[in-house]
Amino acid sequence: MQHIVTTIIDDLSTVIFGKQQQIKLALACLFSEGHLLIEDLPGMGKTTLSHALAAVLGLSYQRIQFTSDLLPADIIGTNIFNNKEHSFSFHKGPIFSQVVLADEINRAGPKTQSALLEAMEEHQVTVDGDKYPLPTPFFVIATQNPLYQAGTYPLPESQLDRFLMRISLGFPPKDAEKRLLLNNQKRDYSQLPQRIEQHQLKQIQDAISNITLSSPVVDYIIELVTYTREPQTLTTSLSPRASMALAKSAKAWAYIEGRDYVLPEDVQAVFSSVCQHRLGLHSDAGDTQIAAILKHVLVPV
Amino acid sequence: MNEIKNHRVINFALSFIYLGLVSFFTEHLPLPFIAMLSVLCGWNIYLTVKQKQKPNAWFANGLAAIALIIMLSSIGFKDTVVLFVAMLLLSCVFKLLQAKSKQHYQLIITLTFFSLSAVYLFSQTIFTTLVISTFYILNFAVLGLLESSHSLKLSSKQSAKIMLLAFPLAVILLLFLPKLPAFWQLPGPKMAQTGLSEQVDPFDIAKLSNSDELVFRAKFNGTPPPTPYYWRAIVHDEFDGAAWKTSSFLKQALILPAKKSTSENEAQYTVIAEPAISDWLYGLGFSSSESPNVIANTLGLLRKQQYKSKVLQYAVNSEPLSSTSLNKSQQRFYSQLTVSNNQKSQQLAQQLKNNSANADEFFNQLLSYFSKNEFSYTLTPTPMRGENTLDQFMFTNKRGFCGHYASAAAFIFRSAGIPARVVSGYLGGELNKNSDYMTIRQYDAHAWVEVYTGAGWKIFDATAVVAPERLNGSLSQSTTLNDEFKNNINFGLVSLSNYAAINWLRLELENLDYQWSSWVLGFDKDKQQDLFATLFGNKFIWLVPLGVIIILILSFTTYFIYLNRPKAATKQPPLVNEYYEIIRWANKHAISYPENATPTQTLEHISNQAPHAEQQLTAFCELFKQVRYARHPFTKERKNQAKDLIKLIKSTKQRNL
Q1: Per-residue pLDDT band at B192 (split at 50, 70, 90)
Q2: Hey, are the CB atoms on A301 and B580 less than 8 Å from each other?
Q3: I need a labelling partner for A225 at 20 to 30 A (CA). Which of B73, B199, B325, B621 fits?
Q4: Residue A193: is its pLDDT beyond 70?
């Protein structure tokens, strides 16, 4: 199984240059059945990464471009009156696919945002009292612009919490950008070969849930979340859902690293992505604060 | 080296305990040795108070060698028990003089428990018990102080609490722990200082009755018989020219058990005898006893069935001596005289015999001879040597104590052909009116003559006419001899008996000690059996000791297991201690590593900076990951591997880093 993971990472690296860490984080998020939020300035490759992920994983996907006038029905679908049968029939929206690419999610209004977020949590949608299950696996890969950009509706904390990870790509290193400019070929992520079958994805997910999480690592996670809960350290503290997310992501990271047990280093690797948005920190200023937490909390032996 | 916080207090308290202990041994250990121990304790206290350095090892060892010589020369090798006790005391006092570390003090405190218990070899009175218990509390308190910085007061309180908690347990053990016969016994220390001996040779004793040590107590059932009380212990029937002895023939007779007597004239009483090395016991007149540890013989004397170094309590029936009769051969036996010295005394006997018609008249004539010829009683007689010591006493000195009078009188009786024998024992005793019992001490030791005048044995006691006060009670109560007696006796409460209050106090204390002896020390196998029988009935009496033993074993085993239970809470998980060992090693060799790194990162940092130990450190890191994070079992091989790696890492030299 391990070679598949390596191949996927290599493939994605041909699309997003010099961002191996972020690619691995994104993969870890999807492998642990979590939704991914990518936050960055426009033009940094957010959409490219999300499309490439869906393509490599070989999942059916829909892209929804969020705008301020987008309505919940545009995502979920709606009941339409069928003249022939004299009844309403449900017309499925774009959310009924394995991967939903929610582009610029914070440009839609709160009502539309919540419609999507309910689907993320429940893995089903409810229209006029009828429940419609969503396909499995179901991932939401959302992108958002930084909040200071014009025309954005910030996601509330409760909804940010639904995303397992928030990653930001950041500017590419110089040589990566040079390669990007020298590359004459049109970057077509839709042409990326499918590298993984659905049953293999399932196997990977099972393997990840079986990864050993030993008590010193659990202690470390608890130390970390307890530290954020102390008064006057931070405005928001980490919930038990956050610590569960941390454990899950650390396992996935360990799997990607080719180990069957979790090290404290794995926790440290995913800590920023898993916890930054839950702590109400912005991606740029938050990094220093996350580093401070990691520095302050000693790793138990 | 363990620093002790209460160094001075501990030192002071232990020295104090040993000073107190030494005072208990003043009567049993020679004076030079006692003085030496006291000086050593005092020196230690002086050093402690003045906060001076303790003597160094060389000096102390030299001193110890000298002390050893003093000890051996003053005690000798005869009495091993006393010698061992002296050695124990000496070694403890010297160790205390050198003690510096916690281990030293622990050793001394442990030995002190033995030293304290050794006092019971010599004295078991309630006073001793109280003082020794106090010292026990103090010793426990000092033990507590070793580990803490509490004050002595607080520590003593805790220690007293522990002792009080242990008290019910002690009572239960005393009452219910089966009293088994001893498999092995220490030879008892030699008890009697004066008093009785196997032979009466008064002429080589210059000083007598200087001990107020308790010999036995007697309690009469009903009204006490009329005074005087002659407590018989030994019969001497053979005169060798100087001393009266017990002949081998009589010794055999002593073993023969007596027939049961059924006289109506009996006095009934109970005797509580103090531990003594000898095997004779005490009774009035012709005594018999049915107590299991006592043998009564045909002479009406009592003996211990087996030697025991503890208090013995027994019931006695006594009938007057006059009820016994002798046949012809027995009369011949008691009137034989194998020596022919002391001619003057023999002439006196002939002269008196000629003047008297029968034995009774001779008896009275001899008595009046003693009363008319200016004989006097003294506790400090002039020593007499040579062949005819009896003649010297009878016709030259005329001063002496009971032994002189008895020897001389018995010799004169036999010279006249009248059966006579010297008996030694105790005369009188002090009646404690509150509890109605007699206290007989060593200074009550006495010797007298028993004469067979045809109608039973009669007591002939020349002391009765020379110093009649001596008959009616203890030496301490007789007035004429009082001053001489007090000069003679060691300082004690008895010597202050002129003051009413002190005398009252003395009698009260003795009463308390009597109760102690009869209820606690005298609680023997038979009394325990009686207790079991009343508590549990006779049917299953054998179950009680068995049950007690089983309960004791079970409870101690449970407690032991409880103490040794695995302590999961405090135990470190595997390899954590080893990890910290590496961290300490790195700190020692000034190897730096980031403060907030994970253990594996830390190990990597360290291994990067220690190229010669890199291989081992990497291996350990891998092992650490396996055991700590991958939860692989911490098998014996892994344990040994970790041990080896740590050893290898630690053996890496500084210059190789």
Answers
A1: very low
A2: yes
A3: B621
A4: yes
First to last CA, chain A: 31
Query: Is B625 in Cβ contact with A263 (below 8 Å)?
Result: yes
Answer yes or no: do A301 and B595 touch at CB < 8 A.
no
Residues constituting chain B = 657
Chain centre to alpha carbon of residue B565? 40
Number of H helices, E strands in chain A: 12, 9
On chain A, the residues whose CB falls within 8 A of the CB of B631 are 212, 214, 261
Say if the Cβ atoms of A261 and B625 lie within 8 Å.
yes
Question: How far apart (Å, rounded) are the C-alpha atoms in residues B17 and B9?
Answer: 12
Give the other-Cβ count within 10 Å of B311's Cβ: 20
Q: What is the spatial distance between Cα B47 and Cα B56, in angstroms, rounded to a whole number? A: 13
Interface size A-B, in CB pairs within 8 Å, comes to 45
C-alpha span between B254 and B155 (Å, rounded): 57
A214 and B631: CB-CB below 8 Å?
yes
- Spatial separation of the C-alpha atoms in residues B115 and B92, rounded to whole Å: 9
The DSSP-derived string for B261-306 is P--SS-EEEEEEEPP-SS-B--EESEEE---TTEEEBTTS-EEESS
CA B600 to chain A, closest CA, distance in angstroms equals 9
With CB atoms and an 8 Å threshold, state whether B598 touches A298: no
Is 80 exceeded by the pLDDT of residue A249? yes
Question: Nearest to residue B447, comparing CAs of B384, B394, B400, B487?
Answer: B400
Beta bridge partner(s), residue A166 = A37
Q: How many C-beta neighbours within 10 Å does residue B302 have?
A: 26
How do residues A65-124 score in pLDDT, each as one tens digit? Answer: 998 899 988 898 888 888 888 888 888 889 999 889 888 888 888 888 888 888 888 888
Helices first, then strands: H and E counts in chain B = 22, 17
Name every residue whose Cβ is closer than 8 Å to that of residue A64 and which is 6 or more positions away in sequence. A70, A74, A75, A94, A95, A100, A101, A102, A103
Band (pLDDT 50/70/90 cuts) for residue B133 is very high
What is the nearest CA distance from B21 to chain A, expressed in angstroms?
55
Nearest Cβ partner of B629 from A217, A297, A298?
A: A217
The overall average pLDDT reported for chain A is: 87
Q: Do B598 and A263 touch (CB under 8 A)?
A: yes
Q: How far is B544 from chain A (nearest CA, A)?
A: 54
Compute the average pLDDT of residues A278-299.
82
CB contact under 8 A, B596 and A296: yes
Which domains are seen in chain A, by residue range? 1-183 (3.40.50.300), 210-301 (1.10.8.80)
Lay out the sheet containing B214-220: strands in order across.
B286-288, B312-319, B267-273, B214-220, B437-441, B430-432
Q: Which residues of chain B approach chain A closer than 8 Å at the C-beta?
A: 573, 576, 579-580, 595-601, 625, 628-631
Q: In three state form, how does the secondary structure of B456-506 look?
A: CEEEECCHHHHCHHHHCCCHHHCCCCHHHHHHHCCCCHHHHCCCHHHHHHH
Lowest mean pLDDT among B42-46, B245-249, B494-498: B494-498
Instruction: Confirm whether the ipTM is greater than 0.90.
Output: no
Q: Which of B573, B576, B599 sits opposite A299 (nearest CB)?
A: B599
Read off the pTM: 0.46
One-letter amino acid identity for B560?
Answer: F
Q: How far apart are the first and last CA of chain B?
A: 31
| Residue from A220, A233, A231, A236 nearest A271 by CA | A220
**Mutation site for A-interface testing, chosen from B598, B606, B625, B627 by largest number of A Cβ within 10 Å:** B598
